[in-house]
Amino acid sequence: QVQLVESGGGLVQPGGSLRLSCAASVSIYSFYVMGWYRQAPGKERELVARITRGGITNYEDSVKGRFTISRDTGKSTVYLQMNALKPEDTAVYYCNLNSTFQSYWGQGTQVTVVS
Q1: CB 47, CB 99: distance < 8 Å
Q2: Distance between CA atoms of 113 and 49, rounded to whole angstroms?
Q3: Separation CA 75–CA 11 (nearest Å)
Q4: For a FRET experiment, which of 4, 8, 79, 104 has its CA 20 to 30 Å from that of 32?
Q5: 1: burial class by Cβ within 10 Å (0-12, 13-18, 19+)?
């Protein structure tokens, strides 16, 4: 069974930065698409960023230029670097890894942006 452990969330002021990590129990080479989703209170879960095994990235419009998704195969970890954070970024963030046949989710980590 694949296990994903998220870390890096916290409370920051607007304009601050956080780096989220998602460590997998197996090589991330097993996954062809990896991504980060977020869910704010009263809202549906939305895709924030994704990266393919080949390194191609895509971002939700509101985070373009501020967030960067990356992966470290040696550490079996996917990252989300978040800069210039806004209150609207407040949500629970979930990592998502997809293999050919299954999808796996992290436990979620809270990101709160407030003055």
Answers
A1: no
A2: 19
A3: 26
A4: 8
A5: exposed
pLDDT for residue 30? 87
b or e along 53-82 (b: 16 or more beta carbons within 10 Å of the residue's beta carbon)?
eeeeeebeeebeeebbbebeeeebbbbbeb
Question: Which residue type does 15 have?
Answer: G
Local confidence band at 43 (pLDDT 50, 70, 90 cut-offs): very high
Burial class of 2 by CB neighbour count within 10 A (0 to 12, 13 to 18, 19+): middle
Q: pLDDT band at 84, cuts 50/70/90? A: very high
The two tokens of residue 54 are: 């080949």
Distance of CA 36 to the CA centre of its chain: 3
Three state DSSP letters for 3-48: CEEEECCEEECCCCCEEEEEEECCCHHHCCEEEEEEECCCCCCEEE
- How much is the average pLDDT of 35-61? 97
> What's 84's DSSP letter?
S
Averaged pLDDT, 10-26:
97
